[in-house]
Amino acid sequence: MNSAGLLTVHGRWANGAVRDLVADLERPSVTRLFIGQLPEAVVKMVPYMFTLCAHAQRAVAQAALAVAQGEASRPANSAELWVEVLHENLWRLLLDWPLALGLMPEKDAFITWRNGRHGEDCLTITQCLLADTLRPLTEKCLEKLGHRSPRHEFPADGRDDALPPAKLAPEEWLAYLQAETAAMPAIALPVSIGALYRARLAEIEAATQALAEGRPFPIAVAGGDGRGVAQTLTARGVLTHAVQVVDGKVANYRVQAPTDAYFADARALSSLLENCSIASPDQAKQVLNQAILALDPCLPYEVELQDA
User: Fold this and answer.
1) Of the candidates 35, 36, 144, 149, which has an alpha carbon nearest to the alpha carbon of residue 100?
2) Considering the domain boundaries, does residue 178 fall inside one?
3) pLDDT tens digit string along 208-266?
4) Which of 99, 108, 128, 137 is deepest in the core (most CB within 10 A)?
5) For residues 84 and 162, what is the distance between their CA atoms, to the nearest angstrom?
6) Domain of 160, in residue numbers
7) Is residue 293 one of the residues assigned to a domain?
8) Which spans in 145-252 are helix H?
9) CATH number, domain at 230?
10) 81-123 pLDDT per residue, tens
11) Cβ pair 110, 96 in contact under 8 A
């Protein structure tokens, strides 16, 4: 998405736990600008309105509008999309997570990779970054989070708190928009901060392998007769665009980003913190910020934590 809007998380520390969490998510109604526009104009506007994961936003917008009109979607630039996933995940893993855990960020290594990511040797520099920088840093971060993994190997998925793989299910969203189902499609609640951290590592590994194999980027669509839904995977989770086209112009447009799902209320944050024993208000704020970072909102946020 973009940086417009604000997330405010309220809570209080009492009796060794963070309690009474409230997530207040405010977003401007950006998609109203699309109403009455030609579909091709909307496709051009989307990356400028939603600047984070802009390539994924454009690809999903194009796919949703195409299926709504009964047209074939233009092939996506898969390499560009895999690199975008790598960029967003590496930003968090090399810069933000070390700071959140009291470690030194790998700023120079990230900048070097970022400057070369669109070159012909992108795959090589990515593989070197993972081996030489990310894996050793991962060891330190996992130890801080209370997890250990075999040295120089990313953690395996077979843990009790492993996050279920994200699923693309545009048919469920289409049924919801057509009022065939009453409930909005739900997401699985994560059970630990460590599970979300390890899920990022798995995404890095998968994206690098997909880049090496030239694998197509996952985009799923459903619709027709003027309605279209498209979904793809981003570094933050499943991104959904849902559209209605009437007489060749956009009549309705909805974007459901992972942030919208995770912070519609405080259930996801509460799930991450319900088993945490916290000794002080300072530690409570630190752990709460780690939980928010793990869910990775795509807009600025503030924390208001009371000491009860």
Assistant:
1) 144
2) yes
3) 999 999 999 999 999 999 999 999 999 999 999 999 999 999 999 999 999 999 999 99
4) 137
5) 24
6) 6-307
7) yes
8) 170-177, 193-213
9) 1.10.645.10
10) 999 999 999 999 999 999 999 999 999 999 999 999 999 999 9
11) no
> CB–CB of 250/36 below 8 Å?
yes
Report strand pairing: 6-14 vs 17-26: antiparallel
Q: How many other C-beta atoms are found inside a 10 Å radius of the C-beta of residue 231?
A: 27
- Does the residue 247 lie in any domain? yes
C-alpha angle 82/221/180, rounded to 5°? 140
Please state, in angstroms and rounded to a whole number, the distance separating the CA atoms of residues 207 and 228.
Answer: 27
Query: What's the number of CA atoms in the CB half-sphere (13 Å) around residue 59?
Result: 23
Q: How far apart are CA 58 and CA 249, in angstroms?
A: 18
Tokens of 230: 């498209």
Place of tokens 């968090």: 92
- Cross-strand bridge partners of residue 18: 13
Considering the domain boundaries, does residue 1 fall inside one? no
What the block records as the tokens of 282 is 């300072």
Percentage of residues of the chain with pLDDT beyond 70: 93
CA distance 62 to 74: 8
Q: What is the pTM of this model?
A: 0.90
Question: Which of the four pLDDT bands, split at 50, 70 and 90, describes residue 15?
Answer: confident
- Rounded-to-integer distance, Cα 215 and Cα 182, Å: 36
Q: Into how many domains does the chain fold?
A: 1
**What φ, ψ does residue 167 adopt, rounded to 5°?**
-120, 130
**Interatomic CA distance for residues 249 and 41, integer angstroms:** 10
| Distance (Å, whole) CA 308 – CA 295 | 25
Cα 273 from Cα 278, distance rounded (Å): 10
List helix spans (H) across the chain. 39-49, 54-68, 78-91, 97-100, 107-116, 122-129, 135-144, 170-177, 193-213, 258-262, 267-273, 281-295
In one letter, which amino acid is 84? E
